[in-house]
């Protein structure tokens, strides 16, 4: 009985931690972008994450072994997450606010549910569809009611963030399938290494073109930039992705993805408290609908933990 409760509770707790960390990540991304260019920030972020995981691997704290495993699909996953996702997210956050970025990212469950039904045959129950819809309505309600924004700039930022939403949905599906062949830490490790190589590569080329390669590490002298890089690199990239991949290995994709809606509420709170972003009555209503959707989707979940655990790797 205790093991059953633990199997059900741990993925939920992991999802809550992921939502909290990702919720604040928009704020720290916004802070970092005030000092660093998008690819420069991403390069430092993933470099720190890759270094930490490599050290843990060398010390034997984590075990990563790709010997005899087909890496083709895993490399395909990295093109969507972190490469495509973070290009769209970071550029989108640069144009919009941290709150609005969180709202858009909450739309990921729509794409995950559709893709999971088609490719994973994970058909959500009618109750789950209703509550997923409720949470999405909450997000759309906030966006529509925020009519005081510059429409042209808002639409551009939202379309860019839509690319992140689509990439995130595909990542959820691929990660779910890969969890049967790779341990969560292996998925996380290769994601951080690829991210570090790709984003630093782009940033270095940009610095060479601008004749500023000698100043590549200069932004690290700025305290705000350093704090943002550490938060994004250690918490958002290492801890959160490990928890995310763990969660995806335990429960179905459509159910786990709804935690991104909780990220929306946290991102709004973080933006209001720490960046003085405006907070209106429709944020309360929209946020309430999002939380209701998160609760309902999990309450009416119909997964069987023991069956899932028996075919996954333990870390």
Automatic annotation (TrEMBL):
<feature type="domain" description="EamA">
    <location>
        <begin position="156"/>
        <end position="298"/>
    </location>
</feature>
<dbReference type="Pfam" id="PF00892">
    <property type="entry name" value="EamA"/>
</dbReference>
<feature type="transmembrane region" description="Helical">
    <location>
        <begin position="256"/>
        <end position="274"/>
    </location>
</feature>
<feature type="transmembrane region" description="Helical">
    <location>
        <begin position="280"/>
        <end position="301"/>
    </location>
</feature>
<feature type="transmembrane region" description="Helical">
    <location>
        <begin position="187"/>
        <end position="205"/>
    </location>
</feature>
<keyword id="KW-1003">Cell membrane</keyword>
<keyword id="KW-0812">Transmembrane</keyword>
<protein>
    <submittedName>
        <fullName>Permease of the drug/metabolite transporter (DMT) superfamily</fullName>
    </submittedName>
</protein>
<keyword id="KW-0472">Membrane</keyword>
<feature type="transmembrane region" description="Helical">
    <location>
        <begin position="101"/>
        <end position="120"/>
    </location>
</feature>
<dbReference type="GO" id="GO:0005886">
    <property type="term" value="C:plasma membrane"/>
</dbReference>
<feature type="transmembrane region" description="Helical">
    <location>
        <begin position="225"/>
        <end position="244"/>
    </location>
</feature>
<feature type="transmembrane region" description="Helical">
    <location>
        <begin position="9"/>
        <end position="29"/>
    </location>
</feature>
<keyword id="KW-1133">Transmembrane helix</keyword>
<dbReference type="InterPro" id="IPR050638">
    <property type="entry name" value="AA-Vitamin_Transporters"/>
</dbReference>
<feature type="transmembrane region" description="Helical">
    <location>
        <begin position="129"/>
        <end position="145"/>
    </location>
</feature>
<feature type="transmembrane region" description="Helical">
    <location>
        <begin position="71"/>
        <end position="95"/>
    </location>
</feature>
<feature type="domain" description="EamA">
    <location>
        <begin position="11"/>
        <end position="143"/>
    </location>
</feature>
<dbReference type="InterPro" id="IPR037185">
    <property type="entry name" value="EmrE-like"/>
</dbReference>
<dbReference type="InterPro" id="IPR000620">
    <property type="entry name" value="EamA_dom"/>
</dbReference>
<feature type="transmembrane region" description="Helical">
    <location>
        <begin position="157"/>
        <end position="175"/>
    </location>
</feature>
<comment type="similarity">
    <text>Belongs to the EamA transporter family.</text>
</comment>
<feature type="transmembrane region" description="Helical">
    <location>
        <begin position="35"/>
        <end position="59"/>
    </location>
</feature>
């Amino acid at each position: 009985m205790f093991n059953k409760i633990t199997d059900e509770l741990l993925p939920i707790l992991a999802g809550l931690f992921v939502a909290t960390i990702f919720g604040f990540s928009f704020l720290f991304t916004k802070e970092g972008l005030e000092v660093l260019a998008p690819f420069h920030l991403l390069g430092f972020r993933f470099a720190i994450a890759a270094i930490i995981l490599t050290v843990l691997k060398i010390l034997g704290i984590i075990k990563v072994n790709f010997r005899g495993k087909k890496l083709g699909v895993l490399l395909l996953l990295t093109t969507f997450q972190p490469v495509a996702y973070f290009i769209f997210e970071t550029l989108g956050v640069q144009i919009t606010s941290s709150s609005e970025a969180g709202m858009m990212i909450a739309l990921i469950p729509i794409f995950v549910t559709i893709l999971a039904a088609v490719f994973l045959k994970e058909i959500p129950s009618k109750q789950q569809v209703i509550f997923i819809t409720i949470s999405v309505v909450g997000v759309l309600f906030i966006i529509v009611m925020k009519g005081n924004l510059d429409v042209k700039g808002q639409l551009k930022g939202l379309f860019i963030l839509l690319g992140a939403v689509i990439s995130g949905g595909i990542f959820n599906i691929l990660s779910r399938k890969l969890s049967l062949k790779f341990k969560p830490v292996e998925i996380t490790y290769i994601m951080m290494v690829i991210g570090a190589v790709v984003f630093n590569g782009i940033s270095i080329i940009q610095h060479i073109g601008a004749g500023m390669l000698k100043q590549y590490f200069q932004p690290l002298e700025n305290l705000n930039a350093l704090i943002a890089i550490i938060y994004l690199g250690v918490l958002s990239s290492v801890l959160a992705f490990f928890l995310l991949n763990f969660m995806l290995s335990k429960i179905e994709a459509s159910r786990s993805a709804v935690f991104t809606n909780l990220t929306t509420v946290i991102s709004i709170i973080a933006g209001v408290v720490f960046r003085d972003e405006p907070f209106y009555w429709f944020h309360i209503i929209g946020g309430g609908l999002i939380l209701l959707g998160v609760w309902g989707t999990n309450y009416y979940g119909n997964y069987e933990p023991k069956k899932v655990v028996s075919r996954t790797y333990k870390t």
